[in-house]
């Protein structure tokens, strides 16, 4: 009907292969469209997934940046973007926020700050907020990383709030995970309680111009020391014996002081991140980590499919019958589940 | 062999019904043993679940307390325990921490503070840290609440770190959810981003003796105003039309200032919590929320069972074949999942 379809309408009509071609040719709207398809799930997401899977092997470095709310992750990501760009590479950024109807709104100040890079065509930033079922974020994130890799971003930064099971899982699913804390014993303790010691490859004590930064660094180093003496507690890839390896050269996560707002110390963070990648390659760990991630992703997909099957049971006559028994407290949730599954 | 078994050994030999009897008779070790069985899962947990399911209908009030790390949740919980005890009721407390190998260790300062109540036999405090698979916490929490109810605790407090999908889910699975923030715009914004506006029944701006408390209260009220004008964005139980209800008396979450360390304002928090329960009863919502929770729990159990089936596939010949195809990047994780499930 429309004589002149808008660019969005044009994108909407193209299939994933066409979108991928356009995205590779530099059409930014096409990248956004591919990511929207992935986020939405379903058949179109599957087609994007198939189209971007093989080329994803070419992603050079996936870097997770995580830490407590307010630790200054976005500002640090800003600095890392600049470092990647200074090296001549293009970079994709996924900012993963917990589900909230407000995530898209005006209060999302940190996303706005990142728009310093809005005019740089070598940077693509996307904020992902899963409004779907639990596990949605964990499923969509690796696919979105593959899209960014497939359209020509060799470096992908993934920023998550590092508190919570799903968020720690996403953050840990990177080649290199940077954990950001702020001065003060509380933040280090909370990072430890949230399981971030175990996933950290590089620690950054951000806002290091504040009081207590040196103490926080020392505390973290002490905790890492403790973790190293706790067999199996912390991730120590290079000492792994999987695959017959028993490499004595373990990676010890460095603890760096930085002030992302001024840029102080952020070059050293970038150096540590690239050094960690070099270590993974030398230790034969990069590929192993990626393989483990693929298998974990497949398992998550299987569980997601089965969960959908469970939801599809709802509304059926058998479901209504069991539901009534449950609500009358005649069967407990386990017995009710068994009655629905053991048919 | 042992002539004199220790109390723990005696507990270990008793079945759930016997443990329940002992727990009801005031034997605290038996309560701990029942909770350990629930946390561990498996057949013994099922037996405990069956034994405690029907009596759980008698729990009077499940209160969730959640908020950012460092917001002072544990100290506020301490004050709420005192308020419950002043009213003559016994109270159970579940402190749910994200998985960490250190949770049981010396750095868990907030658990130690709660030991103010350690000598009060009307208070039972338990720290739960799931080291198991994702979803483990969400599954174990409602069962643990039922154990506490069944052994005679009419009031149960559940404290969680309110950042992260799973944690928000657990916090929201209470009759009344208290969200704790500290002065400063950042904390309110983060609460909103984490989805806490949607689950809050009572807001507490804790550490109200600090600068900015009044502003934070005003900001939260403005956000709640915004949420109220967003249909479907915030939880507004009493305006729900489920079951033909269209009650005009909606609950508007109060925003209260408190300083838990001194006790300033915490009586008003307790009053708001009990007023919220009275509102739920008057609006016919208490039972409806509990029914929704039971159904959600049954679904989670089903998904957990299916996930276990998925893990059991591993190691099989078919799994190894598909795994090899995946790692060779010949099939993507979705196709691999389909090959394993569509047999």
Question: Can you put this structure into words, describing what you see?
Answer:
Two copies of one chain form a homodimer. The first copy, chain A, starts with 6 loop residues before the first helix and ends with a helix. A seven-stranded parallel beta sheet of chain A has the order 3-2-4-1-5-6-7, with helices on both faces. In chain A, 52% of the residues lie in helices and 12% in strands. In chain A, helix 2 (16-24) runs antiparallel to helix 3, helix 4 crosses helix 7 and helix 7 (136-150) packs across helix 13. Among the domains of chain A are: 59-89 and 154-283, P-loop containing nucleotide triphosphate hydrolases (Rossmann fold); 284-343. With 343 residues, chain A is of the alpha/beta class. Chain A has helices at 7-13, 16-24, 28-40, 42-53, 73-86, 109-113, 136-150, 165-172, 185-193, 196-199, 213-228, 266-282, 285-313, 317-327, 333-341, and strands at residues 61-67, 91-97, 123-129, 155-161, 176-181, 202-205, 255-257.
């Amino acid at each position: 009907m429309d004589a002149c379809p808008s660019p969005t309408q044009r994108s909407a009509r193209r299939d994933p292969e066409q979108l991928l071609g356009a995205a590779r040719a530099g059409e930014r709207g096409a990248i956004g469209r591919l990511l929207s398809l992935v986020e939405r799930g379903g058949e179109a997401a599957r087609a994007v997934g198939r189209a971007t899977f093989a080329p994803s092997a070419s992603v050079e470095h996936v870097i997770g940046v995580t830490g407590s709310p307010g630790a200054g992750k976005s500002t640090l990501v800003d600095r890392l973007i600049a470092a990647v760009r200074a090296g001549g590479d293009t970079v994709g950024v996924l900012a993963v926020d917990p589900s909230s109807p407000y995530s898209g709104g005006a209060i999302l100040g940190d996303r706005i700050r990142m728009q310093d890079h809005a005019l740089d065509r070598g940077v693509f930033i996307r904020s992902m907020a899963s409004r779907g079922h639990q596990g949605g974020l964990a499923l969509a994130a690796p696919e979105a990383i593959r899209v960014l890799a497939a359209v020509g971003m060799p470096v992908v930064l993934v920023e998550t709030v590092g508190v919570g099971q799903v968020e720690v899982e996403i953050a840990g699913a990177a080649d290199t995970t940077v954990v950001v804390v702020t001065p003060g014993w509380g933040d280090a303790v909370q990072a430890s309680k949230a399981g971030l010691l175990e996933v950290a490859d590089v620690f950054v004590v951000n806002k290091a111009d504040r009081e207590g930064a040196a103490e926080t660094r020392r505390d973290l180093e002490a905790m890492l020391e403790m973790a190293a003496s706790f067999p199996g507690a912390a991730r120590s890839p290079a000492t792994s014996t999987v695959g017959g390896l028993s490499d004595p050269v373990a990676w010890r996560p460095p603890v760096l002081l930085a002030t992302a707002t001024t840029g102080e110390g952020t070059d050293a963070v970038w150096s540590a991140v690239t050094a960690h990648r070099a270590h993974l390659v030398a230790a034969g760990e990069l590929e192993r980590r990626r393989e483990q991630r693929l298998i974990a992703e497949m398992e998550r997909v299987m569980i997601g499919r089965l969960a959908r099957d469970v939801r599809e049971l709802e509304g059926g006559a058998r479901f209504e019958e069991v539901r009534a028994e449950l609500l009358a407290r005649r069967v407990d949730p386990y017995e009710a589940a068994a009655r629905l599954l053991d048919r």
